[in-house]
Amino acid sequence: xxxxxxHTHHSYTDAAERCLLRYDLRPQLPAIRHIPALLVxxxxxxxxxxxxxxxxxxxLEQAELRLVDRAHELVPFGFEGELRRWLxxxx
Length: 91
What we know:
Layout: H1 9-20, H2 29-32, E1 37-41, H3 50-59, E2 63-67, H4 80-89
Parallel strand pairs: 1-2
């Protein structure tokens, strides 16, 4: 974190996109199938297809697939409370 000033907004968003949106999790699914997962997808998302979420939901034993009527967002605006409740319920 000491060198945060050396990076740009673009470099941070590019790294986040590679880690969160373009990382292929499928090879790890057997090892993590028992871990609870909240999968938030939208039929309107052009970046991450809904069928990806459906596939993950089938592969993960404790997955909860939630659909939101929003475009592509990391945490859909207005869904923060729902996400917080889900996280607290697991603690």
